[in-house]
Amino acid sequence: MPKGAEKEIDDILLTRYACYLIAQNGDSRKEEIAFAQNYFAVQTRRAEIVEQRILEFERVKAREKLSQTEKQLSGILYERGVDNQGFAIIRSKGDQALFRLNTQMLKRKMGAPVSRPVADFLPTISIKAKDLAAEMTGLNVQSKDLKGQTMIEKEHIDNNLAVRNAHTKRNRTRKPSTSRRCEEIATET
């Protein structure tokens, strides 16, 4: 068409993605394109914030669930002759089996204060792994009628190793995840 000529065309209905592609590849000197680019940048950031909040909410829920499971497990173990110090040792040996680091070494590696629970600093999947192992221990201690720190400690270690092995095996067959921190913690020697 000659320069300056105008041609009337029918309206076209575009998908959101098509609009995004046009905006991203358009001339940002044009007001409409600049507006669309800004719009999509704002919407992308909003989506990122919503996703981050959802992930944080899931992590908090997982942490609350772990706390509840550990309270239940503590009660079960107390009834079977394990005191608070014994429970702390059992949990630390479980961490050793799951992460290949005892609780104190894991806290140092994660930069967690000594006075805070290590689970407050773990990624969601690691919190869920600890919860699953603790649930398994509570169930097995009751069903096998285990008593005393030594037998329960072995059971908890075995459960943490089973969770670790399942996680490690599954991660070998999957594409790499976006959350590398858990894999670093779970698979390091």
Overall description:
The chain is mainly alpha-helical. Helices cover 72% and strands 0% of the residues. The protein contains seven helices and no strands. It has helices spanning 16-25, 31-79, 84-99, 103-110, 124-143, 149-173, 180-187. Helix 1 crosses helix 2, helix 2 (31-79) runs parallel beside helix 5 (124-143) and helix 5 crosses helix 6.
In short:
The chain is mainly alpha-helical and 189 residues long. It contains 7 helices and no strands. Helix 1 packs across helix 2, helix 2 runs parallel beside helix 5 and helix 3 packs parallel to helix 6.
Distance between the termini: 69 Å
Radius of gyration: 26 Å
From the helix content, strand content and strand pairing, which structural class follows? Answer: mainly alpha
Number of strand segments = 0
Which regions contain 5 or more consecutive residues with pLDDT less than 50? none
How confident overall, as mean pLDDT? 89
Helical stretch tally: 7
SSE series:
HHHHHHH
For the biggest sheet, the summary is: none
What's the shape? Answer: rod-shaped
Residue fraction in strands: under 5%
Percent helix, as a range, is over 70%
Question: What are the salient characteristics of this protein?
Answer:
mainly alpha, 189 residues, single chain
Helix and strand arrangement:
Layout: H1 16-25, H2 31-79, H3 84-99, H4 103-110, H5 124-143, H6 149-173, H7 180-187
Helix pairs in contact: 1-2, 2-5, 3-6, 5-6
